[in-house]
Amino acid sequence: MKAQSNFNTEAILTHVNKHIQECTEDFYNQSDFKPTFICLVGSRVAGTNKEYSDLDIAIQYKGDAREGDIHHALNSIPLSTDEFIFDFMPFSEEKGNCIELTKPYLALYELDEFDPLKMKRFIKKDGLLKFVYKDLVSKDHSEEDAARLIFNSYVLGDPVMEAEYNKL
What we know:
- This protein is α+β, with helices and mostly antiparallel strands.
- It has 2 domains: about 10-110, Beta Polymerase, domain 2; about 115-165, no CATH class.
- It is built from 7 helices and 4 strands, in the order H-E-H-E-H-E-E-H-H-H-H.
- It has a 4-stranded mixed beta sheet.
- Helix 4 (about 115-125) crosses helix 5, helix 4 (about 115-125) crosses helix 6 and helix 5 packs across helix 6.
- The protein is elongated.
- It starts with 8 loop residues before the first helix and ends with a helix.
- Pfam families: NTP_transf_2.
- GO terms for molecular function: nucleotidyltransferase activity.
- InterPro entries: NT_sf, Polymerase_NTP_transf_dom.
């Protein structure tokens, strides 16, 4: 059940992405831990929070990393802002676990599958990607294949690029 937003989701996602990257970059690569869905859950989203309630962040991911290890990595160095203390709850897709979406939640990030038209719009916004795209097309790649190659090489695995792509 999607919740109404009174949160600055863009600012929260920026804090969360930075924290995830800082806490996992030394231990995990993309095949170990790749977030596919990040959302706010819990009492603050449901409106049943107390003044001191934390902000629960559910992270669904692909990869071989153990949920307990990811939980420890993300929560051992606390993330907080003036408004919130964050609590991270990882769910491994490989283990068959997922975020329960029957309770109130507020999506922050969802990894989209490749969309050629969306990717072409994204390429037009970025000079480097536009250059790479033209080079690939000039080397006999179809436009869709060139866009897919750029998506797989430049967008996937880069949280900033993925976030920008998902905004389109």
